Amino acid sequence: MSDNLLEVKNLYMNYETLEGKVAAVQDVSFSISKGQSFGLVGESGCGKTSVAMSLLKLQADNGFIDSGSIFIDGTDIVPLEEKELRSIRWNKISIVFQGAMNAWNPVIKVGEQIREALREHYPENTKHINYNKMVSLFNMVGLDDSVLNRYPHELSGGMKQRAIIALALSCDPKLIIADEPTTALDVVIQDQILNELKKIQENLGLGVLYISHDISVIAEMTDNMAVMYAGRIIEKGPTKDLFANPKHSYTKLLLESTPSVVGEKKKLYSLDGKPPSLMDEIQGCSFSPRCPNPTNDCKNGLIEMGLIETENGHWVDKCCVNCG
Amino acid sequence: MDKINVVEVNNLVKHFDIKSGFFSSTTKVVKAVDNISFHIGKGESLGLVGQSGCGKTTTARLMTLLEEKTSGDITYYDKKTKVLTSLDALEKEDIQNFRSQVQMIFQDPYESLNPRWSIMSIITEPLNIHNLGSADDRIEAAINILTTVGLTPANNYLDRFPHELSGGQRQRVSIARALIMKPAFVICDEPTSMLDVSIRISIMDLMLDLGRDLGVSYLYITHDLAVARYMCDRIAVMFNGKILEISETEELLNNPIHPYTKRLLSSIPVPDPTYKRVKYHLDFKEINEIIKSSEGTDMIEVNKGHFISTKDFSNELI
User: Fold this and answer.
1) B296 — contact with chain A (CB < 8 Å)?
2) Closest A-chain CA to B265
3) Are B230 and A261 inside 8 Å of each other by CB?
């Protein structure tokens, strides 16, 4: 499909370590079209951030994309050289990093750091144009333009995060990756920033990839979502369907472990055990050791992992469909 | 349940002086905790909820004597004498005794455990400080408490170091360290906010079970009302150093009165994509009516056990 801003197909990514290969991302496929938002949830270490970093080819030096393709606005970026990537990063896809508010250089004014990105990508712009652009960006994220002349330590956590979002928007990307955009913030500020992001997304028609471990944030912010476990997507589909009718036991458990302030007070269930090491070769379903009701085939690792479509657009791992 | 209060806090105040200039003259006073009062019953858990910087952690530090209060009174139920004793009245030896009855669990299990100490030394440190039992007794106590918090077989954990454990296991060690003294009261400062969703519930369940079994009371500090709802019998909402509203948990959620509580409630994302959250705009009409009829008291009871502050916050809340 050509109207997809981002299309990830069968992505495999490994980290080479002294102890061996870590299969951080395995067979991940999803797509985001214009103006849509997509959520990626899962516990820490499941490969969410590895996926995000692969999309910009910013993974750590020991991370290698083994196979698969990543189409951004029609171009496959996997075979591209560093030099060619520079024209795609920030112009077409940008990222709000996890804990990004701590990513500001403390001795350079915030405005100067944004101007740096603008100068790099639009060398023909005059200082005046750049300044106006920064002012409009800051207004968009709800900051006063006087903040441009401040140092990062003079800003609160929420302001720093807003400024980071302005930085991510500075080169008019079509797609933004928001990797845990509000994790370190308290609920009121989180709410404000998420609202701001939603407004910007609607106004500019951006595609947004939300990465979070907080399933409530994903529920409110996204149209489609995928649940990751041990490097693989185990369920994906429209957010509403996934919440109304979760198919995979892991998704069900995630939903049952989230407290809410609305509705009856429910007993919450915890997920015992821990995810498998991605270093070892896993036979069959990686979730079966923690699965509440695995079948014999599942326990013995006889079922290969892979997604099948159960309903229109709702994909679930084969194994868990059988487990029920 | 018998109505013994384990802790009573009355008109607690803590001011921090901001000093500047060559002669360190005080230029500004930050009222981190500004005249708050509450009590916690035996086996009860009170949630202290508010945004960052509202004074939650300062309150906890004052209550554990890690910080010196400016004024006010903190009283604890003394197990030995069976009366509520003010901390001001304690002699030096008594303070040591008090510290054994009140314990704290910190937010970050990666930073609150000494990386060079084995789990055994971390857990038995309180016993060493208070000089309780023989060496063998201490090992036995450590094994028992590790089993209680779900780290089994306990023998396997004693000689390990914090870096060998996962975040959830470390937080279990923190809980074990707090509970080995059999405290009457435990202060938890966001104990699950650094943990993964999947293990968060198991840690909260563990604390609830232990609270029930051992009769421990909790002061549970968090910024997330959803977590507080799961953990706490009552919730106090804090803002700018003051308690604005305090009530039974479900009563507070179903019938919030204070505009700030309403705003806090309306800003929590709901794990249901079909639910449309309504953005709450601050509205002081109702609260002003209540304030008018308050006749100068600090807190007014609107429902049974449901108190709201009568101070006018309309300038501070924007």
Assistant:
1) no
2) A261
3) no
Residue A282 is classified by DSSP as: P
Task: Give the residue ranges of DSSP H helices in A39-102.
Answer: 48-55, 82-85
What pLDDT, in 10s, does the model give residues B14-63?
999 887 777 777 778 888 999 999 999 998 999 999 988 889 999 999 99
Pair of tokens at residue A185: 């913030």
- Evaluate whether the domain defined by B5-269+277-317 bears CATH number 3.40.1110.10: no
Task: Encode pLDDT of A116-128 as tens digits.
Answer: 989 988 999 999 9
Residues of chain A positioned with their CB less than 8 A from the CB of B226: 216, 258-261
pLDDT at site A1: 47
Predicted TM-score (pTM) of the model is 0.85
Number of Cβ pairs < 8 A linking chain A and chain B: 109
In the DSSP assignment, the letter for residue B133 is: S
Domain boundaries, chain B: 5-269+277-317
The DSSP 8-state label assigned to residue A148 in this structure reads: G
To which residue do tokens 């083994």 refer? A66
Query: Which of B107, B197, B240 to probe the A interface (max A CBs under 10 A)?
Result: B197
Q: Compute the C-alpha angle B267/B272/B273, nearest 5°.
A: 95
* Chain A contacts in chain B segment 127-186 (CB below 8 A): 166
